[in-house]
Design brief:
By secondary structure, the chain is an all-alpha fold. It has eleven helices and two strands, in the order βααβααααααααα. Helix 1 runs antiparallel to helix 2, helix 1 packs across helix 11 and helix 8 runs antiparallel to helix 10. 33% of the residues are buried.
């Protein structure tokens, strides 16, 4: 019985059968990817270089930008390659690597969103203990735990899935390698149930993260409404709204991608929802987080002006 190690390649879902639309998808993915790379790259550079942004909030934002870059660089380049050259194949090794890194970065992202919610909870509900609960060592430990748990989660799912015997085809119903799509080809009942068990555990942990975020924001809004000054309430809301917008974006797009009714499911709709929750958010998040963060906007503006001035001086000195 053939297994995944002997299977030479998988067939990814084509974004379109028409050559004109394939090229359109290539340019669309290229534009979104460049926007994500630029936005997240600016945040990474600003937080790393500006001393005023060395706060717990911006420290976790730096890690979130890293995961967004990782997500979009894991799945989109292969989709762009297939659209440009009109192919749909991916090697078994490439598929395993893509599935691993996708799970790795997505798992870290959910952990970081939960940690960033905790940061806002402490800042608003327990401001006197903020320096103690979110000191530099505590932040480093939480970030390390997020990356380590993401690695472990991705390793368990990928190792178990790609060790299963696969004998029911190799055409994936997705434009990137996804664990549920590969499980459909499994011939091992026990291995299939083992992976389903791992998925249930991961889903339970994910639900726990969202539950924590929900109840934390209930406490946050109760505390904000008790602030006597309008300026204080506005400042507190400004600190929370970007994170809440990103969490809502992730929850809504993920929910429609994975829990939509089967009656409305179709390959084109599934493909559109996958692009919506996988490709679009990394490009939108830098804009959302910088919209109400004046310090971050000032740091990015100062950095860009400095680099532009340096380039002008270098240009004139070379003439």
């Amino acid at each position: 019985m053939p297994n995944s190690s002997s299977m030479a390649q998988f067939l990814l879902l084509a974004l379109s059968d028409r050559r004109e639309l394939q090229l359109l998808h290539f340019w669309l993915f290229l534009g979104i990817s460049l926007a994500a790379l630029l936005g997240n790259g600016l945040i990474l550079s600003a937080v790393a270089c500006d001393q005023h942004l060395h706060t717990p909030r911006d420290f976790f934002l730096l890690h979130l930008s890293l995961t967004d870059l990782g997500c979009i660089c894991t799945t989109v380049p292969k989709a762009m390659h297939n659209s440009l050259w009109g192919t749909t194949t991916i090697s078994c090794t490439g598929c395993a690597a893509q599935a691993f890194f996708f799970l790795f970065f997505i798992s870290i992202e959910f952990s970081l969103l939960t940690i960033m919610c905790y940061d806002r909870y402490v800042a608003i509900c327990k401001p006197l203990h903020y320096g103690t609960l979110l000191g530099s060592r505590a932040c480093a430990h939480m970030a390390a735990a997020a990356w380590a748990s993401g690695f472990l989660n991705a390793l368990l799912h990928t190792a178990n899935t790609f060790s299963l015997p696969l004998c029911q085809g190799n055409a994936l119903g997705q434009f990137f390698c996804e664990i549920p799509q590969i499980l459909k080809f499994s011939c091992s009942h026990s291995g299939y149930l083992r992976e389903i068990g791992l998925i249930v555990v991961s889903a339970s942990l994910l639900f726990g993260c969202f539950t924590f975020i929900f109840f934390s924001y209930v406490q946050i809004f109760r505390a904000v409404l008790r602030i006597p000054s309008e300026e204080g309430r506005h400042k507190a809301f400004s600190r929370c709204l970007p994170h809440l917008a990103v969490v809502s974006l992730v929850i809504i797009t993920s929910f429609f991608a994975y829990f939509k009714p089967p009656s409305i499911s179709s390959p084109s709709l599934d493909l559109a929802l996958s692009v919506l929750y996988l490709v679009v958010p990394p490009a939108l998040k830098p804009f959302i987080y910088s919209l109400r963060n004046q310090e971050l906007r000032d740091a990015i503006r100062k950095m860009m002006i400095g680099h532009f001035s340096g380039a002008i001086k270098c240009l004139f000195s070379c003439l």
